[in-house]
Structure formats: structure tokens, C-alpha cells
Amino acid sequence: MTAIPGYRLGDPSLPPSALKAADLATLKASLLFGEEDVAALRKAHDVVKDQTDAILDVWYGFVGSSPHLLAYFCDPKTGQPVSAYLEAVRKRFGQWILDTCRADYDDAWLAYQDEIGRRHHRSGKNKTDKVSAAPNIAMRYILALVMPISITMKPFLAKKGHSPAEVEAMHAAWTKSVLMQAILWCRPYVHPDDF
Amino acid sequence: MTAIPGYRLGDPSLPPSALKAADLATLKASLLFGEEDVAALRKAHDVVKDQTDAILDVWYGFVGSSPHLLAYFCDPKTGQPVSAYLEAVRKRFGQWILDTCRADYDDAWLAYQDEIGRRHHRSGKNKTDKVSAAPNIAMRYILALVMPISITMKPFLAKKGHSPAEVEAMHAAWTKSVLMQAILWCRPYVHPDDF
Fold it and tell me: What is the phi/psi pair of residue A74, to 5°?
């Protein structure tokens, strides 16, 4: 695998998450995310592994055609998209699709969710890629994008000849995992006592 | 309609939301929530209007069997559920199912979303019902519960003889609207500049 700049899943130098395994267990239970979802995502991995570029084209098309979302990739001084930033994020986003399917939900995974959260929030945005794009992504859009990231995935999950029930199971698991991760990315936005 | 204690949709004495119609429009667009979803929810209204008690039984069963969720309805001093609180919330929750199907997405609706958010957060929890339950609902569970509130709804939407495609459309619209509302309820948890 080619090294992806800024990709830090498993990096032992990341600060550990304040969220512990027991917290993740109750979060999973609240999302109805169970072992059958873990298994369905493992299956989805083989379905999507050669489709990540096509999936990213759909997502980047959506963001690129939504001025209020594209703004987060733009330099506020010029109003222009920062192409180096778009490209760096795209590489990690493709890897994230595969990681979502193969996640171990361990402390390293939790620590990287925190890091991804910081990269959306003003406490860490732009630092990884040393860019001068908008300083903060509004939390509401991180959560709202769960819907397009869920809905647009279904046709890709259906492309490899699985039964409707299998596609449904993979899609449900995908949606739960994406919401779970989006929730974890909100941590830097909220007082620890309230999160 | 019998008056429901604490129900304030349309109450002109509620403070107006800081979120404006333009903000709601970009939020809807980010969720892929469109006019077809509004129409599907209108259709869902007639499907679920005589099923709200059965739906609430499912949801209350889930919360009641999840100690980390039931805790929000319990008095921290005694560890016991506050039954007056559970019952008062249940009445509003049933009405909320119908309101979700018929929402106007206007300023009054936005103001009431804010009020519902405050009732989950330590800034307003327990006040409406004058109870002494846990002082704050952790934001992550408000968002996580979108999944059970979505998934458990589908069989109820399928009970009145609509085609699979119609059920799918009603269910997709329901899920988008529930996530949209859960996002709006997070507003008191987050600094206005970050939300």
C-alpha cells in the first residue's frame, strides 16, 4: 500500500480517546450495531474495494455542486477551492471507505476517530494538510452528510450480484457505522460532560 | 385534540430559533431531503396515525431494556425511573410522530425544535415536567437513537398495503427527517459558531 499523507489509523503517537471500550459498547447498542453488522461490513469490503474511485466521484460531485459544502474546501480570502486539500482529503476518504468495512473498533480506531473529528473542527482543521481553507466545518453538516454517504452507497453495494437481503444488510451496517463515526467526530465540538 | 402538557409547537411565546429559513434549506439539501420526502411523510401520516401507541411500545421497550438510556428517565438519587416523566414524555412523543409526518418546516417548527433540544440538554432538562431526573442527556445518544427510531418504523409503514417502493420512500423520508431533527436538537450542546 502506498503511504497516504496524514493517514494515521494505528499511529501509536495519536493521543488516546477519552472514550473507552465500554462507552463504545453502549454507543453501538444505541445504534443497534451488532456482530451481524460487523460481518456485513466485512462482506461489503470485497464489494466496494475496486469501486472506491467511482464512489468518491459521486461524493465529490455532490460536495462540488453544493456551495455551502464546497466552502469548507475553499480559501476564505480567495473564495477558491484549495485543490491540494481536496486531493489530500480524497486519498484518505478512499481509504476510509475500506477502513469502515474492516474496522476493529479498538483503542487505535477510537483514537483515529478523535483525530478525524479534530480535522473537521477549528481545533485541528487544515493543520494536517498545511492549507488555509475555511477554519471550521459546522457540526450540523458533518451529521447531515450521513444521509448522502448512506444513500449513494446502496447501488455500489448491489453491483456484485448479492441478493437483495444481503445488499440490505450491508447497507444497513454501512449506514449505522457512518452515523457512529460522524457522532464520534463531533466530540471536539461539545463539552466533555455533555457529549 | 386533548391538550398535551408541555407541547408547544406553534406557541408564539417560544423564543425564535437562531437558525433561519436559509439555514434550514442548506441543511435539508445536505440531507438530500426534498419535496418528494415531504409528500412521502404526508402519506406516512395516514399510515401511522392509528399505530402511535404500538410504535411507542417498541421504543419504550428499547429504552427500558437499555440501562444507559433508561438512566436519563431516572432520579439519580434513587436510581429509579420517574414514572410521571416517562408518561409526560410519552404523550409528546406520540404527537411528535404525527408532527414529523406533517411538519411545515417554518419558523414555529424551528423554534419548537430548539425547545425540544433544550429539554434534552442541561440548560432545560426536567423543567417542563418539573421532575428531578438525570440533568443532561449525552448528545451522542440523541444522535444514535436515530437508528432505532428509523429501523423500527419500517414494519409499521408497511402495514397498510402500500407497495414496497412506497414503503421505501416513506421510510427514507422518515429517516432523513428524524436525523434532521436530532441534529437541530444538538444546538444547545455546541457553541453557535461551531454548530
Answer: -100, 150
Q: What is the pTM of this model?
A: 0.98
Furthest-apart CA atoms within chain B: distance in Å: 50
ipTM for the whole predicted complex goes beyond 0.85: yes
Query: Could you report how far apart the first and last alpha carbons of chain B are, in Å?
Result: 36
What's the DSSP call for residue A8?
A: -
For residue B5, give the nearest of B108, B118, B92, B116 by alpha carbon: B92
All three cell numbers of B182, joined, read: 436530532
Residue B2's pLDDT is 66
Residues A123-141 have pLDDT tens digits of 999 999 999 999 999 999 9
Tell me, what DSSP letter sits at residue B71? G
Q: Which chain B residues have any C-beta within 8 angstroms of a chain A C-beta?
A: 26-27, 29-33, 66, 68-69, 121-122, 136, 138-141, 143-148, 151, 172, 175-176, 179-180, 182-184, 186, 189-191, 193-195
d(CA A69, CA A142): 10
